[in-house]
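Why does residue order matter? Because the sequence determines the fold. Keep that principle in mind as you read this record.
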Amino acid sequence: MKRIILAAALLLGACSGPQRGTGDLGVVIERADGRVMIVESTTSTRLASIDGLGDLSHAALVFSRDQRFAYVFGRDGGLTKVDILEARIAKRVMQSGNSIGGAISQDGALVAVANYTPGGIKVFDSASLDLVADIPAPSKVVGIADLPGRRFVYSLYDTGEIWIADLTDAKAPKLTKFTGIGKLPYDALVTGDGRWYLAGLFGEDGIALLDLWNPERGVRRILDKYGKGAEPLPVFKMPHLRGWAAAGDEIYLPAIGRHEVLVVDRNTWAEKARIPVAGQPVFAMARPDGRQVWVNFAVPDYSKVQVIDVPSKRIIKTLEPGKAILHMEFTPKGERVWLSARDSDQVVVYDTETLEKVAALPAVKPSGIFFTSRAYRMGL
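Structure:
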């Protein structure tokens, strides 16, 4: 009888223990130590750390549909499934020699990894991490994103192509290839409605644009020669398009090597304006309501962040949150923004209305910050 009472007491104690949802959580990459930090956005607190994720020098991740698991893409080719509620590695596979990012399918069933070495993509079952498709390519793959259906779109850096892989039948993937899109596509984005794919071109001024609702129309060039007539500047860090900024009918893009952010009309894809900024922009990211765009920079200006007021297209604040601001992430409704200050070994949090710092968390060489709300946004 005593044993039964004790067992019942333990069971009741377990049931009454703290429970947590996933919608308020996030993951911060601590790149130097191969570690990720689990955080809560409302209280701006660290909950746990998880080691053993390998080379995270250019790490990215996506979330499962239930937001419980993060799939972390390491630069060493490792794909790690992290249980963010239990703060542990659920599974890890070494799938290539060098990878640069990945995506998860619309239904959450497939995880695709973009590879530099040996090139191409590999696609895994999201539950087991079993390999379901290996799609080679004669090039490094960049700019991978999910599309409606079990489809992924990506660019081939070396050969100047865009491919769409349809894995409706994972055993027999169907490829649609667009060649001659321009020189050296370096990164890309998909608009939130899944219609437009924009690939930035490093080898020439311009953006390659593909209408995914009407792919038979092929790829067309927009913003052609946006730097023509100006003295080219050395590029200290490639701009990142994945954190793209859409504000109403406008898209804000970092200009390669220039101290400018380009404003593009989303209806015509013509340039509307240029906003001078403090340095070479890396990320231009819109607050969820589209009222502000926050911009960070390459060296030597990488300790600055500037805030653009969208209606006036003016810089309303220049901040210096810390040394080497690598990444920015808005809370789901945009009341705060988190910034990783790599060389200050901390993550800083700002109120987006007052533009004042409200919190700071210690972190060892932080880079990417990812909140679980990304699970419900296409292209992220």
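The chain has a mean pLDDT of 92.
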